[in-house]
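Dear colleague,

Thank you for sharing your sequence with our group. We've completed the structure prediction you requested, and as agreed, I am returning the results in plain text so they can be pasted directly into your records. Please verify that the sequence below matches your submission; if there's any discrepancy, let me know and we will rerun it promptly.
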Amino acid sequence: MHALISKLDSLIGHEVRYDSRQFVIIDIVQSGPSLVLAAYADFYLQDNAHGHASRRAPRTHTIPLRSEVSDDLHPVLREVLGGEFCEELLRLLELWEEFDARH
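Please find the predicted structure tokens below.
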């Protein structure tokens, strides 16, 4: 397993605060890569396979590691994860992208 994925795996279950709202990191998406955050106290009615609202589910947000407008980490991740952790994540992300480009 690549060191970036291991580092991201260590984030699963961590609670973060952004824009006065509480989130928990629930998953990583390797293609991208991205983090999936679930919002506390922000639910919507989720439809079942037949299109009927059947349960309340937390809203999720998928945040890419890389910013769409610069070569830095996504600004939301920078804000919620902190400086040292972000620098290590950015270093690992660059290695990941180099590896991905070669294969």
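Summary note from our side: Strands lie at 15-18, 21-29, 34-47, 53-64.

Kind regards,
the structure core
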